[in-house]
Amino acid sequence: MTHSLGDLTQKMLEAARAAGADAADAVAIDGTSVSIDVRAGALEEAQRSEATDIGLRVFVGQKSANVSASDTSDRTIDEMAARAVAMAGEAPDDPHAGLADPDQLATDLDYARLDLVDPNEPDPAWLEDQAREAEDAALSVAGVAQAQGATASYGRRRVHLAATNGFSGGYESTGHSLSCVAISGSGTEMERDYDYDSRVHLSDRRAAAEIGRIAGERAAERHGARKPKTGTYPVVFDERIASSLIGHLLQASNGAMVARGSSWLLDKVGERVLPEGIDLLETPQRPRKSGSRLFDGEGLPTNDRMIVEDGVLTGWTLDLATGRKLGLPSTGNAARGTSGAPSPSVTHVTLTQGRQSRAELLSDMGTGLLITSMIGSTINPNTGDYSRGASGFWVENGELAYPVNECTVAGNLHDMLARIVPANDARDHLSRVVPSLMIDGLTLAGA
């Protein structure tokens, strides 16, 4: 690269001023990714990509516009700035848009303490060996007919944000991932399942053989799946997919949804949305966790934040513009890429865990459904009405009886979340640390 990312953002700001912008912010992102796919013991695909993207947002009075490019030459930057200012001149006034005040900006920019960089880039041949090892482990499981494939990958990403309000900061992060998909049965009776692990540091990632073995065991357990009974039953959402329920709450409490009036949580601030004693905490500065950050997409500091405290919704997730629309301060949750304006987004969240294991939840449930995977969705954002395709295991007398598929589970999110009973099996390295969740009285449509 001709320029560092910090240099690129400063050049964009200078070009914006020269083109007539009253204010501007700029972001530059570069990254390297390597991905190796193995299938049936053979290399199926190997990819390596390196790219640098830049984005510029300008303000002219109360008007704004955003432009982006993947060419970092001085000529392109000058053209971007001129185009952005011209576009802003034609845009409607937005009284809520604008940069942060200087006294709002983050001052702690020491990303070293978050330990987000593994200095060693793996050799592609080693990644291929890892994918083969995972696939071989899956195929060694009794009942596995074939492996759909295994993928080993590595990525390195750098980001720098700067603005005319004086902010300038950047960070770097790495990621190591391995996934495997196994298949049991044949023809119309094929069932698939998977396992994966993704970490900032390779030393934290689980072994390839373990990932492949678990994928194989999960697929084998699903052989012979059939439709469950239709009726109203308790349901346990396995830890692998329980975070999707909390994801619906996070989406409904996003300030952008609230500002549009399209949230089933409208007017619910200060009201109970989860059972008493349960918190939902955002922790954006977790060391060695992908996505951790010290500042948001507008240069504001990030902080731990109770989204739900003792079951009660405390407020909305906000960036500057959304907060201004609602008459509230930003919560430091702006996220942005190069091609658009910031928008509110959460980082890492942790739900209060229970005292029981998943097995103990199933024992308490007696008869019902354990959901391990979901497909499709029909979610009404205004009412919270919920309907999703599901598969997993039918439970009788607290024990797994047989695998099930092709069923639908339905309810209302407000009622469902108010009745969750959490287990104690959440994995703390994930961005959503959510355990298995039991909910009674859901409608199942099966056989």
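Above is the first protein from milestone M3; the second protein from the same milestone is given next.
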Amino acid sequence: MARRRSGGSAGARTVARRRAMQALYQWQLTGQQGQDIVLQFAAEEEHQKADRDLFRELVREVIDDREALDRDIGEISDRSTDQLDPVEHGILLMAIYELKHRVDVPFRVVINEAVELSRAYGAEDGHKFVNALLDRAARKYRQREMSERS
């Protein structure tokens, strides 16, 4: 199911993805309710720079759909999700969600944003793993878009 396009600028969407990655990291470590995390992040001053609708969507939908997204990761990865670094796991959950459900966002943007997040916050060379998995995911979920760009 495709979601509607967020109205924020590219910079605001980048901030939203970074904050969503941080929120998903917190959720993985604490088990806090998604709604509580969304409210906590919304109260922070930096949140005003983010596309708040995209942030809320990413956090809520990824948490709600985590089992299916983990199955998707398992289909394209040689590692089980419990072996993934929590930062990279959160990034992959978000990016695969966007590849599947946010067809308004070009697959190259999804991959680039995820790789940049993993470079900045993930384990050393984790961005290479994220890039490889998302390339496979894009071929699976955005086959038509990829062929149109070729």
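Note on the second protein: The chain has a mean pLDDT of 92.
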